[in-house]
């Protein structure tokens, strides 16, 4: 969030468990973060499970990144 | 009043958020400092047992969301800075990582440090086998053997949570168990949990990652091969953080009467208080009492509760965001990843980063990390990233 305040586009990869925390923190800092939510957990996953998470996260990130670049 | 704040709360866990809310609802200017994020221990827990009452269970994130929203609505200003010293007295002053501030009253709600055994080499193994968060790190030990050290109800709950994934859980109880009969029955029924009483860990084994512990019992010493170790002993209070207040042998702040310390402008709430029962309901009750006590201490100075409150107090003026935003001058080809070093976070980031690299045909992608998820990012790294890159993909939490 500090990066966004400094003008850097900084999408946050957040697991679902940590989403309320990130939202609360963002509200307290008065910023609107760009968030890509990944199902919890990430630690302890095997390769195939991790690949699924990467696929889902990339699916959400690419349009978000295109939009940020397009509106810059 | 000449102070920067009427009330400064140190720590935004259950106790601190509640104290801050209560003081702000009385019309006082309140800041709540936390060196991490709001929530304290709640951030590490998935389910809260015996909350709101005995036998009931509340999702941790739900309570956390409620506490933060209520504090926000009451007008509490959150500051993500570490308080390094509280100079108590008639007009307390706080040294923080972002400078010095004054307050009419201070509520100390710092909770306790993470559990530690105090053994040589322990810090090097934290995150490499040693953890104090079964909910976060338990899945790393799927099908493997782990040990848990402690004697209270929460140790028992952590052991039960670990038993859902680990192959075997040994609970090492330094003396006698202090958990309830109901938890004792659930531990016994698990089938994967062994409880050793009168057991002390005397040494850690492992080169770079934990591979076992040495356990002393009345029967002598023995090696226990484990990949994970979860210590819930040796937790310490804020100790010498506050001048002039007494602490007990575990660094928790002693009180004269409820939440009042020997200094009339300093109050303590939650786990940081000597004798606190270390539970969410008691931290909440302490927070409410400390907030009310701080209000009462400031009443004469604050004009008997009647004051004109500036609703924009603590809110950044609209122009400042735009000013800061002019900083991002790098090109769109400058993209980096920033990992919090949690298990698999870097792999996840790299995977997503590769997809973006292909999508935007980027020649390369930068990489930075912080060594420990539970520490704030180094300012130099943030400075470097913000000067060098247009976009940084950040891994947060797991
Ligand atoms: C493993 C475990 C499981 C538990 N399970 C349960 C349960 O199921 N039910 C239940 O009722 N209780 C449970 N508890 C107990 C409960 O979590 C705590 O009693 C309660 O959360 C304490 O709240 P607190 O606000 O006092 O402290 P904390 O939650 O520890 O918050 C303190 C905050 O202060 C901040 N801080 C510390 N020092 C500074 C500083 N110098 N400057 C700025 N900020 C600072 C920290 O970052 C932290 O956010 C459990 C405890 C543990 C360890």
TrEMBL record, chain A:
InterPro entries: UGSC-like_dom (IPR057767). Residues 2-60 form the UGSC-like domain. It comes from the Bacteria. This is UGSC-like domain-containing protein. It comes from Blastococcus xanthinilyticus.
TrEMBL record, chain B:
InterPro entries: FAD/NAD-bd_sf, FAD/NAD-binding_dom, Ferredoxin-NADP_redctase_2, Pyr_nucl-diS_OxRdtase_2_AS, UGSC-like_dom. Residues 308-398 form the UGSC-like domain. Pfam families: Pyr_redox_2, UGSC. This is Thioredoxin reductase (NADPH). Keywords: Disulfide bond, FAD, Flavoprotein, Oxidoreductase, Redox-active center. PANTHER family: THIOREDOXIN REDUCTASE 1-RELATED-RELATED. It catalyses: [thioredoxin]-dithiol + NADP(+) = [thioredoxin]-disulfide + NADPH + H(+). Residues 6-287 form the FAD/NAD(P)-binding domain.
């Amino acid at each position: 969030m500090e990066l966004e305040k400094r003008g850097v586009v900084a999408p946050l990869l957040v697991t679902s468990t940590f989403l309320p925390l990130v939202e609360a923190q963002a509200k307290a800092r008065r910023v609107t973060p760009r968030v890509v939510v990944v199902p919890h957990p990430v630690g302890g996953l095997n390769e195939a499970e991790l690949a699924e998470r990467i696929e889902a996260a990339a699916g959400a990130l690419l349009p978000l990144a295109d939009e940020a670049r397009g509106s810059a | 009043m000449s102070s920067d704040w009427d009330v400064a709360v140190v720590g935004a866990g259950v106790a601190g958020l509640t104290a801050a809310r209560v003081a702000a609802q009385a019309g006082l200017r309140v800041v709540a400092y936390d060196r991490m994020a709001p929530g304290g221990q709640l951030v590490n827990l998935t389910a809260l047992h015996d909350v709101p009452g005995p036998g009931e269970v509340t999702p941790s994130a739900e309570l956390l969301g409620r506490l933060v929203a209520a504090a926000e609505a009451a007008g509490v200003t959150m500051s993500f800075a570490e308080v390094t010293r509280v100079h108590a007295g008639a007009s307390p002053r706080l040294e923080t990582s972002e400078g010095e501030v004054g307050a009419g009253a201070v509520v100390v709600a710092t909770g306790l440090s993470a559990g530690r055994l105090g053994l040589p080499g322990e810090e090097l193994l934290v995150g490499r086998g040693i953890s104090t968060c079964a909910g976060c790190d338990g899945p790393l030990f799927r099908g493997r053997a782990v040990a848990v050290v402690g004697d209270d109800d929460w140790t028992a709950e952590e052991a039960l949570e670990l038993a859902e994934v680990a192959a075997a859980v040994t609970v090492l109880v330094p003396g006698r168990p202090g958990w309830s009969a109901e938890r004792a029955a659930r531990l016994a029924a698990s089938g994967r949990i062994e409880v050793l009483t009168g057991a002390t860990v005397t040494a850690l084994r492992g080169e770079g990652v934990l591979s076992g512990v040495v356990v002393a019992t009345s029967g002598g010493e023995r090696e226990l091969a484990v990949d994970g170790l979860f210590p819930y002993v040796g937790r310490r209070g804020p100790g010498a953080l506050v001048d002039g207040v007494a602490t007990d042998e575990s660094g928790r702040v002693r009180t004269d009467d409820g939440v009042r310390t020997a200094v009339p402008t300093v109050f303590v709430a939650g786990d940081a208080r000597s004798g606190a029962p270390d539970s969410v309901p008691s931290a909440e009750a302490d927070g409410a009492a400390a907030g009310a006590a701080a209000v009462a201490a400031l009443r004469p100075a604050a004009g008997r509760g009647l004051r004109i409150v500036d609703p924009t107090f603590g809110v950044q003026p609209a122009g400042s965001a735009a000013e800061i935003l002019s900083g991002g001058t790098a090109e769109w080809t400058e993209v980096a990843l920033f990992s919090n070093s949690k298990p698999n976070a870097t792999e996840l980031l790299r995977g997503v980063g590769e997809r973006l690299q292909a999508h935007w045909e980027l020649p390369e992608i930068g990489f930075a990390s912080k060594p420990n998820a539970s520490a704030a990012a180094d300012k130099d790294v943030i400075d470097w990233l913000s000067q060098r890159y247009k976009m940084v993909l950040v891994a947060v939490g797991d």
